[in-house]
Amino acid sequence: MAGMSLHGLPDMFRELPMTDRRVAADVMDLLMRDTDRATGCAAVVVCDEEHRGLQPVLLHDDPPPRSVPQRRSGSRSFGRATEWGRDAGHDRRDVARDPSRLVGLEDFDRLLDLLLPLVVARSGSVLLGRGRPRGMVADDVDRLWHQHAIDRCRGLDVPLLGFYVATGDGIFRLPDPLTAVS
Predict the structure, then answer these.
(1) How many CB atoms neighbour CB 48 within 10 A?
(2) Ordered domains of the chain (ranges, CATH)
(3) What's the rounded Cα separation, in Å, for the pair 164 and 173?
(4) N or C: more exposed end of the chain, with fewer CB within 10 A?
(5) How far is the C-alpha of 90 from the C-alpha of 94, rounded, in Å?
(6) For residue 26, with 0-12 CB atoms within 10 Å meaning exposed, 13-18 middle and 19 or more buried, which class applies?
(7) Sequence-ordered strand ranges (E) for 15-62
């Protein structure tokens, strides 16, 4: 996928196999912008029965501070049909008592609860991800999000094509869910 850009994605998005880990990582990297990562976000790529991307959806936290630099040029969006922010009562001081409030785990769960039944109805699959400001090692919150994704997908028999964490430092994939045979 060398040379792929945000502007090149829309024309080929519906032809890309999200089962290809490199393609999936590139798509998640393009979907979650640096400004989204800086404040926390979740990304869902709804796929068809052949695991090709149909619709990217981004859920993000509070608007980023003006000082966050943009890594990519241009401001074109590719199908950000759904963007939800945090509740108006969100107070960053509460993060010290409850870290999940910053990352929006409850919002992520609600998003999955809304989207997964639609994916089931079309015999589709999903590619999921989380954006956060820094780091290249999975932390406890990443693992919690990952487990929530696994549980919700497994509960509805939706294929989970992968779970990625995108930060200002890069992007990495969390392990595939264990199967009963594992």
Answers:
(1) 16
(2) 17-64+75-173 (3.40.140.10)
(3) 4
(4) C
(5) 8
(6) middle
(7) 41-47, 53-60
